[in-house]
Amino acid sequence: MQDETSRLARAALGINRAAILLAELALVALMALTVYAVVARYFFRSPSIYAVEISTYLLLAVAWLSVGWTQHAGRHVSMEALNEKLGPRWQRFTTGVSHIVILVFCTVLLWSGTRFAITAFERNYRSGSLLKFPLWTVYLLIPAGALLLALIVLLQMRRAAGGASGSTSAPPSSAGND
Q1: What is the mean pLDDT of the chain?
Q2: N or C terminus of the chain: which is more exposed, having fewer CB within 10 Å?
Q3: Is 95:160 a contact under the CB 8 Å cutoff?
């Protein structure tokens, strides 16, 4: 059982590592696109008609693909000032409540985001710009991010219950070296 849990933990962390790598690549692409848009507009007087829309999609990818890894690194917003004043027992309790609330939130996002992406696919929703980008691909980021976050929270809950070895909440030194 321990070996199976360890394999599931490695798989979940591996999926989140891949997602954070994609988020990092999207961030580099966002930076390059922004530089291109500024240079095209101000130096060549030829603004890009797609730069803002593509930048928006890239920013959404960065946000949703990094949400699980952010939880793994312990970098989400929290009430640290309050939590530090509590004793260890109450800290565990508040962390448990927080994990449950996050899982409920992820479940809602996963369910509604998937429904929304399927509807967008079935009805062929596209962006209103000249790009006519298929919106289901962007909407699919919502349930993907919820799943990435839920996997990490489940691992953290398992660890807190004493069922898994290895840390899932220590800040990594970098995305590729953990």
Answers
A1: 89
A2: N
A3: yes
